[in-house]
Design goal:
5-stranded mixed sheet; 5-stranded antiparallel sheet; 2 domains; 37% strand; single chain; 220 residues
Length: 220
């Protein structure tokens, strides 16, 4: 629809045991530089007209921005992208901001790890700068050590987990999942490591980046 720079679609959320539908009005924009206030806040301008058009108030905005589009994704500014005022405005007005790169990472990870839609769709409903982490991921640490010869990651865990648990690791392009084949705390093998412990976890991976976020993958 060339005359409409937005799209509205229903997003399903769950409250207790009852599911209900909301609508998200989306604007996708490509720019050569860093988003200005107008770039970031444009999607929110379509909310009130859509409320009047559809005679409903449960509509929110999502701005998807392809910033620095002439650069390869990993060479773009992907951390401090939006000014604090823009983020505060997004949170106050309850709309989301997402980059096309993060959307790609989310979609690529869903395909790679066979995530159900139920853990991905709610991500698009979040407000402020959207972190493309699925609903069933719980961050438990940052990789501090990688032992290449034995495929072991070292980190301090923020949650209890054990042998057989599924771990998700954030790589630059996507999230990679692996099972915890063994768990050690201070060189002692354990079936379960307590929260706060420095752990060494054997995973079937060829590499793991230092500083990467580590997640416990909950059952869905």
């Amino acid at each position: 629809m060339p005359d409409r720079p937005y799209l509205t679609w229903p997003v399903f959320r769950r409250s207790g045991v009852a599911a209900f539908a909301r609508s998200v009005t989306v604007e996708v924009k490509g720019i050569s530089g860093i988003p200005t206030d107008d770039d970031a806040l444009q999607a929110s301008k379509y909310v009130i007209p859509r409320m009047k058009e559809f005679n409903r108030t449960d509509i929110q905005a999502l701005g998807i921005i392809n910033h620095q589009r002439n650069r390869p994704p990993l060479q773009r500014e992907n951390v401090d992208l939006f000014r604090r005022d823009i983020l505060d405005n997004a949170e106050e007005q309850e709309f989301g901001l997402l980059t096309t790169w993060d959307l790609f990472r989310l979609a690529r990870s869903q395909t790679r790890n066979n995530w159900p839609a139920s853990v991905v769709l709610p991500v698009l409903y979040r407000i402020g700068r959207i972190d493309p982490v699925p609903e069933h991921y719980e961050q438990i640490g940052l990789i501090e050590k990688w032992f290449d010869a034995i495929s072991v990651i070292g980190f301090t865990t923020a949650a209890t987990f054990g042998v057989g648990s599924r771990i998700g690791i954030e790589f630059p392009n996507d999230f990679v999942e692996a099972q915890a084949a063994s768990v050690e705390v201070e060189r002692v093998a354990m079936m379960e490591a307590p929260a706060g412990a420095p752990v060494a976890v054997k995973v079937a991976l060829a590499d793991a980046p230092i500083g990467a976020r580590v997640f416990l993958v909950r059952d869905v």
